[in-house]
Amino acid sequence: MVANWAARVPDDFVMHVKAFGMMTRHPVKVDVLPPDLRNGAPVDERGRVDRPPRELRAEVFARFHAALEPLRAAGKLGGILLQFPSYIVCKPLSFEYLEWAKEQLRGDRMLVEFRHRSWLEDENRAQVFSFLEELGATYVIVDAPKTEAKNLVPTVVALTSPTAYVRMHGRNAATWNVRGRSAAERFDYLYSDDELREWVQPLEQLAEEAEEAYVMFNNNGRSRAPGDSDRWISQAPTNALMLRKALQSQGARV
Question: What is the pTM of this model?
Answer without folding.
Answer: 0.93
